[in-house]
């Protein structure tokens, strides 16, 4: 009888744990956590987000999916993204949070050390876009000089706030490579200037008043009205080293507000903006 009671108690404890943490992810011992209070109830149609995933940092894709699901943007621009990781993030978002996203990949590097894979088929590393609406006109461009690592941008056309818009996600050269970033910013600015409405999501690896970002500031504005090259001190930091490196730049689009949300799953915070795309 005592043994039976122990088994019943164990069953109750397991059931309570499952209610607290959610179902286990198939194929592993990772648990799906419920979303925090105040999380979005579904995709927010006028919200965009940028996030450098930090790779390699050992973060779990189920945790990354939960972070994205908490704010549920219409569009997410990802940097330092491995194709396989993004595939899992997309699947977790659909399976556990009911959020269905299309994915466009923009790898600029195939590197087994970064993204795993067989020696003859290493994983793709670079940018990616998750969009709740279908995407067209995908373009992947590598910068002529990536600096210490290949860098580039991914551009797609999709729908935000009910209107068609060009979305670009990019990652500029690492710190202390100002000259390389200046050339990359020139290439990026020319692409932005081609469009009447454009949203640029990315890790530019430079603070707002860095001279190399001048070409981008000339054709677009930050979604945060406090954040300008002449007043960079007003820009909230987006990295663990308390620098503003991540941006939502807008051309032909008005921002309603922007937020920085810290995360333990990357050395970059999540940055999202709610937009007004009315004519």
Sum up the structure in keywords.
279 residues; alpha+beta; 6 helices; 14 strands; 26% helix
Number of helices: 6
Q: Determine the N-to-C terminus distance.
A: 73 Å
Lateral strand order in the biggest sheet: 3-6-2-1-14-13
**Largest sheet properties:** 6 strands, mixed
The helix/strand order is HEHEHEHEEEEEEHEHEEEE
* Rg from Cα: 20 Å
**What structural category arises from helix and sheet content?**
alpha+beta
Which ranges are low-confidence, i.e. pLDDT below 50, for 5 or more consecutive residues? Answer: 14-23
Describe the structure concisely:
With 279 residues, the chain is of the alpha+beta class. 26% of the residues lie in helices and 34% in strands.
Describe this structure in words.
By secondary structure, the chain is α+β, with helices and mostly antiparallel strands. Helices cover 26% and strands 34% of the residues. It is built from 6 helices and 14 strands. The strands form 3 sheets. A 6-stranded mixed sheet has the order 3-6-2-1-14-13. A 6-stranded mixed sheet has the order 7-8-9-10-12-11. Strand 4 and strand 5 (121-122) form a beta hairpin. Helix 2 crosses helix 3 (83-97). It is globular and about 45 Å long.
């Amino acid at each position: 009888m005592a043994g039976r009671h122990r088994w019943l108690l164990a069953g109750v404890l397991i059931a309570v744990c499952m209610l607290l943490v959610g179902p286990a992810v198939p194929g592993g011992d990772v648990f799906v956590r419920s979303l925090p209070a105040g999380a979005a109830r579904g995709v927010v149609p006028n919200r965009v987000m940028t996030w450098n995933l930090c790779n390699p940092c050992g973060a779990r894709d189920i945790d990354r999916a939960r972070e994205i699901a908490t704010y549920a943007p219409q569009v997410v621009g990802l940097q330092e993204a491995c194709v396989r990781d993004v595939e899992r993030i997309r699947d977790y978002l659909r399976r556990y949070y009911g959020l269905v996203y299309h994915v466009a990949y923009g790898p600029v590097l195939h590197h087994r050390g970064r993204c795993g894979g067989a020696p003859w088929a290493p994983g793709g590393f670079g940018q990616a876009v998750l969009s709740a609406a279908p995407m067209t006109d995908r373009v992947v461009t590598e910068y002529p000089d990536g600096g210490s690592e290949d860098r580039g941008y991914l551009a797609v056309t999709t729908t935000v706030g009910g209107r068609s818009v060009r979305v670009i996600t990019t990652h500029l050269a690492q710190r202390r490579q100002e000259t390389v970033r200046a050339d990359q910013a020139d290439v990026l600015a020319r692409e932005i200037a081609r469009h009447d409405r454009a949203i640029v999501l990315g890790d530019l690896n430079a603070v707002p008043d860095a001279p190399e970002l001048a070409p981008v500031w000339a054709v677009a504005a930050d979604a945060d009205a406090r954040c300008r090259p002449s007043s960079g001190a007003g820009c909230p930091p987006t990295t663990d080293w308390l620098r503003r490196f991540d941006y939502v730049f807008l051309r032909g689009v008005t921002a309603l507000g922007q937020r920085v949300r810290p995360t333990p799953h990357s050395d970059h915070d999540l940055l999202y903006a709610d937009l007004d795309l009315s004519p």
